Structures are given as C-alpha cells and as structure tokens.
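One example given next:
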Amino acid sequence: MFILLGIFMSFFASVGMSQTIISKADADYIFSLTKPSWEDYARKMVHPDGWKVRLSPRDTGTGVMAYDNQTRMGLSIQPFYKDENSLPDILIVGSYYPLGTLPKFTEDFKHTIEGEAKKDLGAEYSVSAAYIEMPPFEGVELLITKISD
C-alpha cells in the first residue's frame, strides 16, 4: 500500500503556521502519471495516521479524500485528465478544517499560501489558492498546473 503521499499532512500545524501541502517530488510524480496509472495508484493510498480514505471516481480522474473524525480535518487530491493517455492538466489539493478554524482569507493570507507552495514546488509549477466554505467545514484548495517547457 502507498502512503497518502507526503502531500498534505497538515497545512496549518496551528492556525497561521504553514507546512508543505505538496512536495515537489509528489507533484512531479503525479504529473508524470497517465489516468490509468493514477487510478491504480489512488486505489492503493492509505493515510499514515489511519484517517479514513475514500475515492471519488470521476471521468476526469479519481479524487482521493481522507478524513479524521477526531480532529474533523480532511484532505483531498485530484488530478484532472483530458483523456486516458494524457498527463494531468491540473492538480487540486485541498485541506479542510472545522468552520472558524482558519484565519480570515485575506489577499495577504492567499499570497502567503501561494508563495509557500511555489517555494516548495519551484518554478516548474503555477499555484493558485482558493478559500472553500462547506459548512461545517472550511478550507484551502490549491490549483496547481505544470508550466510547459
């Protein structure tokens, strides 16, 4: 079985303290997978702390979600594919928390998150952060694209 990547263990160790959401190695690996390879990989994922992992099959690529009942935190990752043989166009990585946990999602906070992710991923990737509210949760989703050579 594969560990649910080193991707997004805990984006906010404590409110306002960022950690790596997705490593460059993980992003490079996911962006190297065709859809069938990703589907196979996704089915083997587990969370290292035993969080419940669920798959969300989609025509564009299966999403993998993990949830911890004790902390009420959730994680998700989903690459988006045009077809079976292409590499992903976009990767969305999300971290979700109980509503009211995150700092206010200001432009400064958004730029800080994007800056940290860009620093981790390097110049090969473009990153955009978005605030998501789905009561009783709120979260941050990163939309990641690989910059063409």
Remarks:
- The first helix runs from residue 24 to 30.
- The radius of gyration is 15 Å.
- The chain is about 20% helix and 40% strand.
- Confidence is low (pLDDT under 50) at residues 5-18.
